[in-house]
Request: fold
Amino acid sequence: MSKAAVASDRGSLPWLVRRAANALAGATTAAEVLDARDKATAAYDEAKRAARLASAKSAHDDIIAAAYKAQGDALEIESLAKSRLADEFDAAQACGEVAQRGRRSDLGRDGQVPTTAEIGLNGKAVYEARRIRDVIKRSPSALRQAIDVRIARGDEPSRAYLRREVFNLGALAGSRREEQRRASSLYWVNGKPVEAMSWADLSRAIARGKRELAVLERIAGHVANATPDTKVRDAISNSALAEIISKAGRMP
Reply:
């Protein structure tokens, strides 16, 4: 590309996106990652304005799609930068280079460890960055795929949309972890895995199980020749059922 072409390209959407991508690729410190995030945010905001302006002027779909593509690319870079910031922040806290939440402590001649706000972040930003980081670690292409799906539908790949996707992906992963945790347990009693129960828990569960068994046996014996599909409510009146349960509860 000639110098004239480079000069004319400077400040364009593609240039802003490339600048952010190059900044993130070359970032080696937390400050440089923050700078890359800010450059991606600037590219995102400019693309968003361009898309809205094109829509307001009823521009050709290709022009709007190009703006959405730039916006999506910037959003991906911004998200990747946030993911790296989450790692940088956690490492800094672990090393005592950033104050723990709600605490400050001495650090050399400066006297104090910088707070989250003093390094250009806040609690909400850190929380969001960690969620993005966790989604990317589980599925590196998940965010890009979500952005591409949005663009393919002709919709704006907004930050709010991606935030919802990150939340949904995180919630899905959480439910899968719970399923895996339950599957890995030998057996569950009253919502608690057997291996986590104490002997007192076992005694209470056994006593409860005996009472429930007594109730069920009395109910089953109250009606002769019931078919397998017969519902209890159809064979026993509420008053009779209450009496059965009461008598079973009084059994030693």
Summary: The two ends are 92 Å apart (CA to CA).
